[in-house]
């Protein structure tokens, strides 16, 4: 759980939450990672072009397996050529690259089969993911 500023003592300090780092790295083998849906592709980049990549937005509707959802786990899948491929999906062995956990502002309580909408945007340099 991420640390949030308190809203007690008649002072709402929650605007300072925006100054926190918006993600944290978690090793792919961390047993605390629980996948609550099938994975989905947010964005694809062809690095052969060398960029720059235009800003892009997307919406995804994911089917929950039920339970509490605190954020998203992001990882990369690299297809280098017909022989070379690397993915640091949670639960894989041997990757020195961590996954990226992006916490939601509030935890979602879901039922199995419930649709969860995610919105995402990148500016060619950084990514933002949120629930509407």
Structural commentary:
- This protein is mainly β and 132 residues long.
- The chain has no helices and eight strands.
- A three-stranded antiparallel beta sheet has the order 1-6-3, with no helix packed on it. Strands 2-7-8 form a three-stranded antiparallel beta sheet, with no helix packed on it. A two-stranded antiparallel ribbon has the order 4-5.
- The protein is globular, with a radius of gyration of 17 Å.
- The two termini are 20 Å apart.
- The mean pLDDT is 85.
Features:
single chain, 132 residues, mainly beta, three-stranded antiparallel beta sheet, globular
Total number of strands? 8
Low-confidence stretches: none
- Strand order of the biggest β-sheet: 1-6-3
Overall 3D shape: globular
Please trace the helix and strand order, writing H or E for each element: EEEEEEEE
Number of helix segments? Answer: 0
**What's the story with the biggest beta sheet?**
3 strands, antiparallel
Q: In brief, what are we looking at here?
A:
With 132 residues, the chain is an all-beta fold. 0% of the residues lie in helices and 37% in strands. The chain has strands at 24-26, 56-63, 67-74, 77-79, 85-87, 99-110, 115-122, 127-130.
Secondary-structure blueprint:
Blueprint: E1 24-26, E2 56-63, E3 67-74, E4 77-79, E5 85-87, E6 99-110, E7 115-122, E8 127-130
Antiparallel strand pairs: 1-6, 2-7, 3-6, 4-5, 7-8
């Amino acid at each position: 759980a991420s640390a949030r500023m308190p809203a007690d003592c008649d002072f709402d300090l929650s605007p300072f939450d925006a100054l926190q780092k918006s993600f944290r790295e978690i090793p792919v083998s961390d047993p605390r990672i629980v996948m609550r849906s099938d994975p989905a592709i947010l964005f694809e980049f062809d690095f052969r072009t060398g960029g720059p990549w235009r800003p892009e937005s997307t919406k995804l509707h994911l089917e929950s397996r039920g339970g509490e959802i605190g954020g998203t786990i992001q990882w990369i899948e690299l297809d280098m050529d017909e022989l070379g491929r690397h993915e640091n999906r949670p639960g894989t062995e041997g990757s020195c690259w961590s996954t990226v956990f992006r916490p939601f502002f509030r935890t979602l309580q879901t039922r199995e089969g419930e649709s969860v909408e995610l919105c995402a945007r990148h500016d060619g340099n950084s990514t933002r993911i949120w629930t509407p």
